[in-house]
Structure formats: structure tokens, C-alpha cells
Input
Amino acid sequence: MDYIWCFFVKFKQTKILSNLKPISRRDFLSKTTLIAGTTFPAMMALGMIKPAPVHAFDLEGNAAGKKVVILGAGLAGMSAAYELGKLGYQCSIIEARERTGGRCWSVKNGSTHQEDDRPLVRASFDEGLYFNAGPSRIPHNHELTLHYCKELGVPIQVYNNVNESSYFFAEGKGPLSNQKIRNREVHNDVRGYMNELLAKCIHQGELDSPLTKEDAEKIIEYLRAEGGLDADRLYKASARRGYIESPGAGNSPGKIANPHKLADLLRSGLMDPDFYNVAEYTYELQMTMFQAEGGMDKIAKAFEKKLGTAIRTGAEVTAINNVTDGVKITYKDKAGVHQLDADLCICTIPLPVLGTINNNFSSDVSRAIDYISYNQTGKIGLQFKRRFWEEDEHIYGGITHTNNELTQLFYPSNNYLDKKGILIGYYNFNEKAQQVGMLSFADREKLALQKGKLIHPQYDKEFERSFSVSWHKTKYSMGGWAVYNGETRKEAYPVLLKPDGNVYFAGEHLTYLNAWMAGAFESARYVVANIHSRTTNSRIAYPATTTKG
Ligand SMILES: Cc1cc2nc3c(=O)[nH]c(=O)nc-3n(C[C@H](O)[C@H](O)[C@H](O)COP(=O)(O)OP(=O)(O)OC[C@H]3O[C@@H](n4cnc5c(N)ncnc54)[C@H](O)[C@@H]3O)c2cc1C
Output
């Protein structure tokens, strides 16, 4: 459809253009300026300005050592420094943590973490084991994230986000409560019943729709195939929902259980929108998904390697001030308080943290920083001495969904068939994350084990150790990611897309890709393009989007 439309437009344009008299560039510009109010689109049309290509990002012109100070060595800060470095800027990055990567962090043996005013904790996982406390999945349509993996030589592997073998577990709710039910059973039963209902309506002519008899028959055929219905358009269990006795040799055809009753599925909440897993239908969570081999922070480490001594870790920014012709940044480290002058600044500090830092921003900017909210979220990594989910239950990657505090259990998509492994014992959000985050580290572990063993009784025998992170309680993050509502997106977001004097703002929070690494990269490029445009006095169009559906 799109293709035909494009072809039609192109054909019309060609016809119209061939009838036009020759026109000079100057005339063309002045005429289109009158129409569009700006020469910019016209200059683009004439090829006088190049849009920044998404992946090559080969902006023209050299900044000849202009000084840019970047606040935060997360993915936004480091990718901005990396791209600015290619253009001749002199960048320094001030990072409060002792490590780079910010939220892009994989917890392994020796990793340390601090929340609020609690004592520092240190992970003691076995060597080679890790879990991603922050990002764990790269969507196949996040071209920029994949692009940087390629450019920086970070190997990736498939992340199994959707697994029909993992479970739904409704604790204390309805006739199916406290039973682990395979995803494939719930998905196929629900699909079967819904298609049976629809087929019945269509067959009896009860749908208020102008279908011809042939159309109705075709739809019924489709519903039969989609729902696994029999010749009478009734849903009966089939091998789709798995076996209770596997098929094998000789006299072993396999045994299929009866489906769960529709009323039971409903009453146990397995069809509630926040439980029945439709997340995997969303654009970003559709397979194929990827992860960086050996931990997602390999991406951060790869940037760190490129940037070398430009990054100062253990340096906490305490004040950001616009001054005439530049910026003055105050930061403190173990040696004391320091000041750093630069021509421009890119601030990637998450907004809840930025709101606590002295500054002389305009009142609009200060208000925007305060208004945009962040979510609460937490994860726990549980090390087990045996990969019982694989050995006993045939679960290789994927997610189990629960209605209790755990919300989700993630099985590792790496090192299949190894002896030991770490699974993510909960990954929760908002109220549940807040409740669990208030617990001590020991009590979070207790809760994860107590609830988790309802699903996997093997926990008791196989558990070794844990490590948990509550992002909203973590000093230099103070939240999982930015969450906009209609008003903050309309009022606050555009304010921070513009620089405040010599300070530019970047990070996942300044995109429509919140909660994604791709957001950090897109935002970094957006700001780099704007800074370079200002420095070289040229107009550079930042590509509106990197994805093509
Ligand atoms: C639980 C969780 C799951 C996620 N899952 C995914 C996923 O599956 N896939 C995906 O693509 N993305 C995911 N994300 C999102 C992704 O991690 C972020 O979008 C991205 O890492 C944000 O990068 P950033 O540079 O904008 O911010 P940050 O990583 O937060 O970087 C900001 C930096 O500023 C530093 N800083 C803060 N205060 C100061 C100060 N005063 N002085 C100096 N430095 C300071 C911080 O230490 C940090 O290094 C997830 C995030 C979380 C929390």
C-alpha cells in the first residue's frame, strides 16, 4: 500500500517538475522561504545541507579543540564524547561513580553497590557468573544500539525473551491459584476459547458486520486454524499446549491434558491485562532480541576503552553554572573540591539527581527538571548451584510471570547447560518495587526465596547467594527511567531539548525511547548534532528516527 502511494506521488512529482521553468537556487530559496517560513527544507532539497546519516553520523567540519565537559559516564555521556571526539572536540567526562556505564551495569563477583545511607554491599558470585541489574535486552529494531555493538566490537547473542515453557503463577487467586501453569497452556487455551466464541458468533450470523457468506467462511477457517478448533469449531486441547506424558518410541504416543476452564482462567486473573503476557507483542519486546555476551556492560566498557583518560570517575558534580562564554563545573573527589571550565557542557545526570545539584538554570528548566518523574524498579540475582530450571523443567531463557511481589522471574539466556547459573528472582515496578526496595538486602533475599520456591521448590536445595538493586534508592540514579504523562511530555520535555545557555541536556529521559539504551544513544547524537551545528555555524538535520518499522 505504502509502496503504491509513494510510486503515485513520485509519478505526479515527475510530471509536475518536468513542466516547470528553470529557476535559480536563490529564487528557489526565497520562494520556498515565503511558503515554509524557513530556507532549511529547501536547502536540504538542493543538497546544500546534508542530513546526518543515522549510522555513519559523518558530520562535516572540525571543532578545533573546543572544550566540552560531559557530566556522567553512562551510555549517553560516553557516546556523546566518542562522537564529539571524532569531530575534533576536546571532551572530559566527570563521573560520580567509581565505574562507568551508569544504569548499564552487570553485577559480577566483586561488584559493589550502595543504596541510600545503607552500608556498601559487595557481590560474591562465582567467577564467570553475572546478571544484568539494568538493561538485559536489545530489541532487533534498536539499530543504534546494535550499530555501536558492531562499531565497538561487542559480541552479541540472542536473548530469549519469549518462552512458551516458562510459567504463569497466580498466588492465592481463583481456582488455578498456586499452580505453575506453562505459558503455552494459558496462551493456547485463551486463544482457543476466544476463537471458539468468535467462530460461534460468525457462524450464527450474530456479528454486526457486512460479511458475505464467503468472507464469513474464510474467517471461520482462519479462526479454526488460529485457535486450534475442531471441525465443529470447538476448542479441544491439542499438542500445542504440551504433554503430560511426552511422546516417544514404541507404544508412547504422548498424553495431552484437558484444557483449563475458561472461567478458571478468568477467575485466577490469568487473562487480566497486567498479567496475561501481552508485553511480548509490543514493538520492542518482539523476538528477535539480543544481549551483549558476558554482560550488557560490555557495551559501556567498550566506550570506556575508546575514551581512556578523558573520563574521571569518583568525581561528583556539585554545581553547574553558565558563565559568560562557557560553563563552570564544580565537583568533588577524594582529593577535595575542584572547578572545571569549558566552552560547553552536556549534562546526562538523571533528573531526580540533577534536581539536587546547585545550578543557575532558568526557572523553566528548573521546573522541567522537577516535573518529570521516574519509576521505581528493582531486580535480584540469585545464584544456584544447579540449573534446575533447565535440567528439571526444560526452561531455557524467558520469563515467568506472577501476581505477587516478584512480578517476573527471568531465566538466563546464556551459558545454557552449564552447571551453575544466576536467575533474576524478581524484576518489579512501582508499588511492588517500592515495597520490596524498603526491605533490607537480607529480607529481599528472604522474600525472593520464599515466594520463588512456590514456583520452584528446588530453591531450598540449590540456592547459594544473592545480590539486589533498587534503582530508585540508588544514589546516582534515584529511579529506573523517566516516565512521562501527557502534560510533562507536552510542557516539560521540549524545554530540556533546548540548551540552557551553554548547557545541553541528554540521556534516555530526553527521547521517546525511555527505558532503552537506544534512548541514551539517540539523545547523545541529537545533542552532538546541535552542538556541532552551533560550533561550525551550519545547519545539521538530526534524523527524526532510526527505525523503519
Ligand atoms: C532495571 C532496568 C532495566 C532496563 N532494561 C533495559 C533493557 O532491557 N534494554 C535497554 O536497552 N535498556 C534498558 N534499560 C534502560 C537503560 O539502562 C538506560 O536507558 C540507559 O542506560 C541510560 O543511559 P544514560 O546515559 O541516559 O543514563 P545513566 O546510565 O543513568 O548515566 C548517567 C550517569 O550520570 C552519573 N551521575 C549521576 N549523578 C552524578 C553527579 N552528581 N556527578 C557526576 N556524575 C553523576 C551516573 O553515575 C551515571 O553514570 C533499563 C534500565 C533499568 C534501570
